[in-house]
């Protein structure tokens, strides 16, 4: 661990005048340029504030007080080479990296031509692909894990340079739609406020970066407040530097972030450390916040004038101007000239931006999903090629869903070097020497679905993650942004919730919010569901509707081995993020076993399977309810001659409306059956659509069978009473058929 601390009293005054004329390696021209960026940044804020008051823009977030540290980071790092996850106060950084003021004003007015989001995101939510500035969101802190994943992705590519290549022949896949680049000594920069360092994801990111010695610069821009909450109430002991100082493998800097020269020196040292491959760096920059939190906040309500005046003494723009004068780098005339040029440039930029056209209302759903590769298309409809007998001539026994998922993962990993698998316990054995000396067999997941993959593909392609679900998904998102295909595992659906911020506000939004500037197609495999006889409340949950409710996220839920293989391959090859729900009870069920359908078998999403054709009643279901519904339907036919058409949706978003509609047109009766709690569930939406769009075809009300609106209990008698059983399905079918 290396630590460097610059006296917060500041290098600006002491440095240039007495020590050297090199200003920590910055030339006079660079210092003038730095001031220009800082002044421009401040004046853009001032302009935006005016525009907001005139109701010409709709939101304003200022970078005031944070200019020096931003410019310093921009000068020390390389634009279009390193990667940047800058938070909303990093206007000066973005200017230094090459964003034009005009582009910032386009964002303010929400113009169609706004290169960061096409009018979809608030101003100061940066996204500029060519500059490697990755799309940013509003939740504070959710960028940090992605930055770690980005660094991880860069390092992986550096170790697997062939993975960059995309196939030029064969079936299309996601690799053909993204240019993937890396540099062997690249750095990922991520910034946040000191308030945000209280978020759990920050600590998960620090831990992951330290564990992997990843080249990430964490920059905490500490302005002493998170809206109205002062740092001593936010951070135990009042200093984030103190709290993080125990993380191994880090280089630490604490610096006056209102001093561009000292900040530059800190970033230079941090960058050197990271580029050399020693590990991550932490830059704690003390800055000020002269313009309240945002235009919706008036800091005079919680900060006395005396405190605000004290801050004003450290204003980075004024101080840098004084410094340039004192050092004789610019005189009054030079300063005036520079400021006049900036004002003129901004005037032109504002005038142009105010004339820019807004986006077309019809475009609102564009780029929720890949515009290049349609996951419902026939590209993903490939035949199963089954070997009837093995190489020794023996007939091949049908395989379980677990077997076929493993086989699919294995074949896809062989085909595509960009696939990495991580999650809790997914590796065979993290202590590789045990495997090497054959002391252990290896684990490969709590359900053993990844067994053998680490041994076959190596521990940089299949590895255990820390026990941190947000880190699993956030890191995967960052890696996928770089072009890798993480296929990660959430051990139990019941524990997916720490990742909810990443799954709701990040992963599915990336393509849409960046107007197709970025995408993160990865696969999240999740063991889901009950019927376990003792699974209880925390090993039995469903809850798929929470995720089908999220635009931008594909959700699939196979009920048998063959579908699991075909859908998983599609999930891996497609260009959208996919939540792949694997029912634990079905993993090794005798129902639905199948022979391996070969290394290219795929099923398009949004295509249901008619499990059993019928004429009297349509049952729409998926997952572990399918075998139960089939049992009930067969009994009903045996006993009453009622012919049920059973539809297995297989994929929940998108879902196959055409098959439902055609079936209901034939049977005139519909029952929706699912394992999750009845109310507000996935089936409610299907039922509502049938009632709305097929009303004329119906001879009976649309019914639902689902779990009781409670948690799943441990005692099997209770579990049976809670989850939908074959008999519940039978009774509902019988009742509806005779309605
Ligand atoms: C997860 C989350 N919680 C709350 C908010 C609302 N919010 C926006 S900025 C902010 C304060 C952030 O303070 P800090 O991290 O110190 O950054 P600063 O704005 O001071 O630069 C809050 C609470 C949010 N955007 N995201
Ligand atoms: Mg703050």
| Secondary-structure content class | alpha/beta
Most strands sheet: 7 strands, mixed
What is the arithmetic mean of pLDDT?
Answer: 95
Q: Which residues form runs of ≥5 with pLDDT under 50? A: 6-11, 13-19
**Helix share, percent:** 25-40%
Strand order, sheet with most strands? 10-9-11-12-14-13-18
Q: Rg to the nearest angstrom?
A: 29 Å
Cα-to-Cα separation, first versus last residue? 75 Å
The strand count comes to 20
What is the general shape?
A: elongated
The unique ligands bound to this protein are: thiamine diphosphate, magnesium ion
Give the count of helical stretches: 26
Beta-strand content estimate = 5-15%
Task: Name a few traits of the molecule.
7-stranded mixed β-sheet, 20 strands, binds thiamine diphosphate
Task: Please provide a written account of the structure.
The protein has 739 residues and is of the alpha/beta class. Strands 10-9-11-12-14-13-18 form a seven-stranded mixed β-sheet, with helices on both faces. A six-stranded parallel β-sheet has the order 1-7-8-4-3-2, sandwiched between helices. Helix 2 (28-53) crosses helix 4 (91-97). The longest helix is centred in the N-terminal third of the chain and has 26 residues, at 28-53. The N and C termini lie far apart (75 Å). Residues 193-195, 223, 225-226 line the site of magnesium ion.
Chain-wise SSE layout:
Elements: E1 2-5, H1 11-19, H2 28-53, H3 67-76, E2 83-85, H4 91-97, H5 101-109, H6 142-159, E3 188-193, H7 200-212, E4 216-222, E5 225-226, E6 229-230, H8 231-234, H9 240-244, E7 251-256, H10 260-275, E8 281-286, H11 305-312, H12 316-326, H13 332-355, H14 401-415, E9 419-423, H15 432-436, H16 453-457, E10 462-464, H17 469-481, E11 485-490, H18 500-506, H19 510-513, E12 523-528, H20 544-548, E13 554-556, H21 561-573, E14 578-583, E15 609-612, E16 617-621, H22 625-640, E17 644-648, E18 651-653, H23 657-667, E19 670-677, H24 682-693, E20 703-707, H25 716-722, H26 726-737
Parallel strand pairs: 1-7, 2-3, 3-4, 4-8, 7-8, 9-10, 9-11, 11-12, 12-14, 13-14, 16-17, 16-19, 19-20
Antiparallel strand pairs: 5-6, 13-18, 15-17
The protein binds thiamine diphosphate and magnesium ion.
């Amino acid at each position: 661990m290396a630590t460097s601390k610059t006296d917060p009293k500041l290098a600006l005054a002491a440095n240039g005048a007495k020590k050297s004329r090199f200003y920590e390696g910055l030339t006079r021209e660079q210092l003038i340029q730095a001031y220009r960026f800082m002044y421009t940044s401040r004046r853009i804020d001032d302009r935006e504030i005016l525009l907001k008051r005139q109701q010409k823009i709709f939101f304003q977030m200022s970078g005031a007080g944070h200019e020096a540290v931003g410019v310093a980071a921009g000068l020390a790092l390389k634009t279009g080479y390193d990667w940047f996850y800058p938070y909303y106060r990093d206007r000066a950084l973005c200017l230094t990296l090459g964003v034009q003021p005009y582009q910032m004003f386009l964002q303010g007015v929400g113009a169609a031509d706004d290169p960061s989001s096409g009018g979809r995101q608030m101003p100061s939510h940066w996204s500029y692909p060519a500059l490697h500035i990755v799309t940013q969101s509003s939740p504070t802190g959710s960028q940090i894990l992605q930055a770690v994943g980005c660094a991880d992705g860069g390092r992986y590519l550096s170790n697997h340079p062939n993975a960059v290549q995309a196939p030029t022949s064969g079936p299309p896949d996601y690799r053909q739609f993204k240019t993937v680049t890396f540099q062997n000594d690249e750095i990922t920069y991520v910034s946040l406020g000191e308030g945000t360092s209280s978020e759990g994801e920050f600590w998960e990111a620090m831990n992951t970066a330290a564990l992997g010695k990843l080249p990430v610069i964490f920059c905490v821009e500490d302005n002493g407040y998170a809206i109205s909450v002062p740092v001593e109430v936010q951070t135990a002991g009042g200093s984030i530097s103190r709290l993080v100082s125990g993380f191994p493998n880090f280089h630490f800097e604490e610096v006056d972030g209102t001093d561009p020269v000292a900040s530059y020196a800190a970033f230079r040292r941090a960058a050197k450390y990271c580029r050399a491959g020693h590990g991550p760096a932490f830059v704690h920059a003390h800055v000020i916040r002269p313009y309240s939190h945002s235009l919706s906040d008036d800091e005079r309500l919680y900060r006395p004038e005396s405190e605000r005046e004290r801050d004003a003494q450290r204003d980075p723009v004024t101080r840098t101007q004084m410094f340039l004068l004192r050092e004789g780098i610019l005189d009054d005339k030079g300063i005036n000239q520079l400021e006049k040029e900036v004002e003129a440039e901004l005037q032109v930029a504002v005038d142009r931006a105010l004339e820019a056209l807004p986006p077309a209302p019809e475009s609102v759903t564009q780029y929720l999903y890949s515009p290049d590769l349609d996951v419902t298309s026939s590209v993903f409809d490939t035949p199963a090629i089954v070997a009837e007998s093995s190489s020794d001539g023996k007939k091949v026994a049908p395989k379980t869903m677990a077997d076929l998922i493993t086989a699919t993962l294995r074949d896809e990993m062989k085909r595509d070097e960009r696939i990495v698998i991580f999650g809790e316990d997914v590796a065979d054995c993290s202590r590789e020497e045990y495997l090497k000396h054959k002391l252990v067999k290896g684990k490969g997941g709590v359900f053993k679905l990844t067994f053998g993959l680490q041994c076959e593909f190596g521990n940089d392609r299949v590895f255990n993650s820390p026990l941190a679900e947000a880190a699993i998904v956030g890191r995967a998102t960052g890696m996928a942004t770089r072009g890798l295909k993480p296929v990660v595992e959430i051990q139990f659906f019941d524990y997916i919730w720490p990742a909810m911020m990443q799954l709701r506000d990040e992963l599915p939004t990336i393509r849409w919010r960046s107007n197709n500037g970025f995408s993160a197609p990865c696969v999240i495999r999740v063991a889901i569901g009950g019927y376990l006889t003792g699974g209880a409340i925390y090993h039995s949950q469903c809850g798929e509707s929470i995720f089908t409710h999220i635009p931008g996220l594909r959700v699939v839920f196979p009920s048998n081995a063959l579908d699991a293989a075909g859908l998983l391959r599609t999930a891996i090859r497609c260009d959208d993020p996919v939540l792949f729900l694997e029912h634990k009870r079905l993993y090794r069920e005798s129902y639905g076993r199948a022979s391996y359908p070969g290394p290219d078998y795929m099923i398009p999403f949004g295509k249901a399977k008619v499990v059993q054709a019928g004429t009297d009643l349509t049952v729409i279901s998926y997952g572990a309810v399918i075998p139960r519904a089939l049992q009930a339907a067969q009994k009903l036919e045996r006993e009453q001659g009622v012919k049920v058409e059973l539809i297995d949706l297989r994929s929940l978003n998108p879902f196959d409306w055409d098959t439902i509609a055609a079936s209901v047109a034939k049977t005139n009766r519909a029952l929706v059956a699912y394992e999750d709690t009845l109310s507000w569930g996935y089936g409610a939406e299907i039922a509502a659509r049938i009632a709305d769009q097929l009303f004329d075809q119906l001879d009976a009300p649309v019914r639902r069978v689902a779990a009781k609106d409670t948690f799943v209990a441990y005692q099997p008698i209770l579990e049976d009473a809670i989850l939908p059983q074959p008999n519940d399905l039978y009774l509902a079918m019988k009742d509806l058929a005779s309605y």
